[in-house]
Amino acid sequence: MSKYKLFLLRHGEGNWNKENRFCSWVDQKLSEDGVKEAQDCGRLLKEQGYKFDLVFTSILSRSIQTAWLVLEAMGQEWVPVVKSWRLNERHYGSLIGLNRAEMALQHGEEKVKLWRRSYDITPPPIDESHPYFLEIYNDRRYNTCDVSKENLPRAESLKEVLDRLLPYWESTVVPEIRKGRTVLISAHGNSCRALLKHLEGISDADIASVTLPTGIPVLLELDENLKPVKPRQLLGDQAKIQAAIKKVEDQGKAKPST
Description:
The chain has nine helices and six strands. The chain has helices at 15-18, 32-47, 61-74, 100-107, 109-117, 133-137, 158-178, 189-200, 238-249, and strands at 4-10, 54-57, 81-83, 183-187, 217-222, 233-234. The chain has a six-stranded mixed β-sheet with strand order 3-2-4-1-5-6.
C-alpha cells in the first residue's frame, strides 16, 4: 500500500540541451522552451491537485529556476527550496561542452552511448587546460559544499553520482519524507536516474535504457520502507512523453552529413 509520494523532475530544457552539448557542471539557464516546460509542468501538477511541502534542487541554476517556475505556476511560491551540490548533474569531465552528435561521428555511437548511459564507466577527467575548468571551480557556489573544492569530482560515472547522492538522500531527504511531507526533487537527468536506480532496484545493465525527458514530472508511490508499490508514472500527455524520450535517446546518434 502506498504511504508516501515522491516527485522527481529533470529540469526544463537548457540552452546546451538545445545545442546537444554536454552541459554537466557548466551553469546554464533554461532556454525559452525550457521555461515553458517548467511552467507547463507546474500547471499540470496544480490541475491534478498536488501540493508540495518541500523542494530539493542542485546548486545549478537550471535546476533552481525550474523549481521556482513550477512552484509559481502552482501558486506555491512559499514552499521552501533546499539546495545541494549532491543533486548536481553528473560530471562529464573532459567531455563538457562537446556536441554529442559530432562525437558520435568521431568516436562511434556505441562509445558515446557508453559514456552517456553506462553505469560504471567514467569519462576522461577535466583538467586545468579545459576551457570550462576555471568557470566551474572558481565559482563561489562551490565554497558552500560539504567537501573542499579539491575533493569535488573531476569526472563521474553514474555509479559515482549515486555514491555522492546517497548520503544526502539518507540524511536529509528521507527524514522529510518519513514525516509525511510531499517532496519534489528538481534536479538533472543523471541525478534523477541514479536515484531511480536505487529506489527501484534497477540493474546496472538496465539503467542504460532509462530515459527521462526534460520538464516531465515522475511520480513514485512508496511504501513504509520507501520501496515503490507500483511502476513509476511519467505524468502528462503520454504521446508527447514518448516523443520526448525518443528525442533524448537520439541525442547521441551521429547526424548524417549533408
